[in-house]
Amino acid sequence: MNTVETDIQQAVEDAAAHLYVWALKDIPQDLRDALAAAAETETSVPGQRVLQTILKNVQVAERENNLVCQDTGIAVYYCRVGEHFPLHPARIYQALYEGTMRATVDHPLRSNIVHTLTRENTGPNVGYRVPIVHWDFIADWDGLDVKCVPKGSGSENMSFLKMCVPADGVKGIKTFVLESIVGAGGKPCPPGIVGVGIGGSADYAMHLAKEAIARPVGTRNPDPLVAQLEDELKDLLNETGIGPMGLGGDVTVLQCHIEHADTHMTLNPVAVNYQCWAARRASAHIGADGSVDFDREA
Ligand code: SF4
What we know:
Layout: H1 2-25, H2 29-41, H3 45-63, E1 76-82, H4 89-106, E2 132-138, E3 144-148, H5 153-156, E4 159-164, H6 169-184, E5 192-200, H7 202-213, H8 224-238, E6 253-263, E7 268-275, E8 282-286, E9 292-295
Parallel strand pairs: 1-2, 5-6
Antiparallel strand pairs: 1-3, 3-8, 4-7, 5-7, 8-9
Helix pairs in contact: 1-4, 2-3
Bound molecules: iron/sulfur cluster.
């Protein structure tokens, strides 16, 4: 039993090491398509120049096998663990930690992580409670899905939470999202994906906003009411004129994604998490036998 666990732990570590670097170098096709579509619609000269530079940057990164942005981010993983997957989450965390560290040392990548008070570097993109791992547990399944989402600081700094009251309604949600993005201006390297989390509690709303930015670009929430709000917000945000990199233009956001949860009758939390144009993500499916399938588009 120990041997099997060790092999699977190694497989998860190897997968994490690959996912972190892969995500940083090779952005998914849905994001490439969204950036190309933005370049087709943008009418402002500075906006067009920014988008052409971004598209060229993506091509150069691919040709030179290099990173799409110098900010290697904070490593965030989303794990879906089947109840019969033969490795305990504590060991999965250990594997993700080791894999992140190995990728950073071997590539090498910039080490971003510091103690939050002393600001001293804590190691190769790892530290106390870093990488950050979100968990979902799935009944009647023996697999593991791992999605790596390295989050750049420019866009992560543009995260906002408001505890609206129920009387604020949907209008309050829209106003807060709009105010947040207008206030952020060019800081989060637009055009990107605006992740919105609504409902739940204060902490859960922010978690949902983060989950929203990790979805394939342009996917719609399965709830038609929420999907309609995604479309409305996307259009509203693109009317702000902030444009690519905040230099003015038609395309301020590529998409608005919303995740929601039911909430207390006296709560109406709204969280915004911005994802810059470099919306990096990479996924792997790991079988109970340690086999690994990498998935570019999940
Ligand atoms: S916000 Fe995004 S594009 Fe801007 S520097 Fe950070 S990772 Fe790079």
